[in-house]
Amino acid sequence: MTAVESGGAGAVYDRGYRPYDGPRGRRAAATFALYQASMRRALGIRRSWRQKVAPFLLLGIVTIPAIVNVGIGYITRGEALLADRVEIITYREYVGVSAALLLFVALVAPDVICPDRRQRILPLMFSRPLTGVDYVLAKVGAIATILFAFSFLPQVVLFVGNMFVSDSALDYFTGHLDVLWQVPVAVLFLAVYYAVIGVAIASLTDRRIVAGAAVIGLFLVTSIASGILVGEDFERNGGSLAALLNVLALPLYLRDLVFLGHVDFQSPLAGVDNGALYAVVTYVVVLLAGIGLLLRRYRWVER
Amino acid sequence: MPLTRPPTAPGDAGPLLRLDGLTKRYPGVTALDHLTVEVPRGRIGLVGANGAGKTTIFRLLLGLAHPTEGDVEVCGIDVARDPIAVRTRLGYMPEHDCLPLDQTAADVVSTFGELSGLPARVARQRASDILDLVGLDEARFRPIGGFSTGMRQRTKLAQAIVADPDLVLLDEPTAGLDPLGREEMLGLVARLGTFGISVLMATHLLDDVQQVCDHVVMIDGGRLVVSGTTESLLERTGIVTVDVGPQREELVAGLTAAGMIATAVDGFVEVTVDGDHHLDQLRDVIAGLGLPLYRLSTRIRSLDEVFVRRAGAA
């Protein structure tokens, strides 16, 4: 450090330039750094308070059913008969709080993806030890992680709350061991699916509002179209494969497979032969299509 | 797996860049045409008119485009074989706006440091140091959206050098800057050499190159025009410029009478000299006529003239 200017009260120092010869990461480190940066952006961390409101408000909203359920369980805990104790939502149903997830995907996926293209940041990104595959992995991974956390944390609140308002916490725990793997697996199916679709659609435009509208539009249009094709009397008519057109509800069939081992008897796919198999195949196809689109959009290196 | 750069990495002793028969064709246009050149370490000016192929060279150096023919080596590393290794040793400052406007300079530079492979804590510390170095110490916690053009250019430079690259690619670093901002940016670029960072500066402003670069590569239409040290390209013309005030014609007549070639041009007298004896003769004529001598300098051909002449000849 060199004193370049000094006076009676102090001195100004030119700290100069210090070379760096420490450890350097390569692709994995760059991918993880981008993943962390995308998570921070999605959650509004290191941004103004306005950007923090939406994600944490949403987390609060999706946690309300758990809190209400536990509260009612606490109030009715003295009832002698289990039937008199009120349970307003099951773990399986809670996984399907997908409307809130949809809103979150529509809000956050474009915010994490679109500015990179609109503000021409991509050339800077790809001048680092980072490939298109790494970029897609980091962005989808960040959204999927947040979706997973936002779906899983309320379930934890529900489970722990139910455990403590039950007659015996230990009995409740041992009696619900299945939930401990069913919830994370089902939530993982949802999180990855919504993340891939949200990011894939957002990658098609550099305008956030257009991307957000497109995400919501896709989910709404496919669910309405599917509803019309399946009809109202699907339980009596034996269901229809058209139920698989509902992009919003598709991962819920996998949730049912995880929790029930079969498609829910009240779902529009219930009467279809091999309906579960078709649901899994469609889920995988949609995921692969989304990933394929993303890899193509961020191939970046020209041939 | 984290890598520690060895004090002497492979290729450190060789040329900084080696382009061998480099050709890049796009449908309907040849951006680079069998470009072969070796460039030493230091501050290099990559000079050419708009569309000459400068940006294509940058894309090829970064491994973001594949050459149609030929090879590219950066610091001894074949770009086609290991583009990731090359990118860990490069910094890049694009010409266009490329910064997230809603983030602070400290966040952006720190994030790009991490993306270059620095550990998070080191990236934050270096971002602070580098922003201080480029003169953005007090502004580093302000959103970039409120920055002036000059401050944005400095931020772009900071993100390019935050990971201590071997070579930094600067694409028109003075574009859009006012004269003061331009001088400050060129001063920063000149300092990079003293930090052990080589510079490849693409520009069409030859004055910028002449001011800070010690080696020049000129290209035109995707072909090499000339490559050499700045000193060697600033050709001496064999003409000296003499300022004797308003008595120019008197000096011209005296020199002509002494058998020398002299003309009055733009308020000066240009005298053709061929060896020290002509300079002695010039001194004697001026002294004999009792003229004041305000300035006497060797006229050097500017890079503009060199480019126009050589590109025309090519």
Layout of strands and helices, then pairs:
The complex is a heterodimer of chains A (303) and B (314).
Chain A: E1 2-6, E2 11-14, E3 23-24, H1 27-43, H2 49-75, H3 91-95, H4 98-118, H5 122-125, H6 132-165, H7 169-175, H8 177-202, H9 208-230, H10 234-237, H11 250-260, H12 275-297
Antiparallel strand pairs in A: 1-2
Helix pairs in contact in A: 1-4, 1-6, 2-6, 4-6, 4-8, 4-9, 6-7, 6-8, 8-9, 8-11, 8-12, 11-12
Chain B: E1 3-4, E2 17-26, E3 29-39, E4 43-47, H1 54-61, E5 69-74, E6 77-78, H2 83-87, E7 90-93, H3 105-115, H4 120-133, H5 149-161, E8 167-171, H6 179-192, E9 198-203, H7 206-212, E10 215-220, E11 223-229, H8 230-233, E12 236-243, H9 248-257, E13 262-265, E14 268-272, H10 276-289, E15 295-300, H11 303-313
Parallel strand pairs in B: 4-9, 4-10, 7-8, 8-9
Antiparallel strand pairs in B: 2-3, 2-5, 5-6, 10-11, 12-14, 12-15, 13-14
Helix pairs in contact in B: 3-4, 3-5, 4-5, 9-10
Based on secondary structure, the structural category of chain A is mainly alpha
Coarse structural class of chain B: alpha/beta
Low-confidence stretches of chain A: 1-8
CATH domain class name of the largest domain in chain B:
Alpha Beta
For the CA atoms, what is the radius of gyration of chain B?
Answer: 24 Å
Helix content of chain B: 25-40%
Give the overall shape of chain A, derived from the CA principal axes.
globular
- Tell me the quaternary state: heterodimer
Summarize the amount of helix of chain A as a percent range: 55-70%
Order of helices and strands of chain B: EEEEHEEHEHHHEHEHEEHEHEEHEH
User: Greatest chain-chain interface?
Assistant: A-B, 38 and 50 residues
Portion of residues in beta strands of chain B equals: 25-35%
Q: What about the largest sheet of chain B?
A: 6 strands, mixed
The fraction of residues assigned to DSSP E strands of chain A is: under 5%
Query: Distance N terminus to C terminus of chain B?
Result: 49 Å
The number of domains of chain B: 2
CATH architecture of the largest domain in chain B: 3-Layer(aba) Sandwich
Query: Biggest β-sheet of chain A: count, sense, barrel?
Result: 2 strands, antiparallel
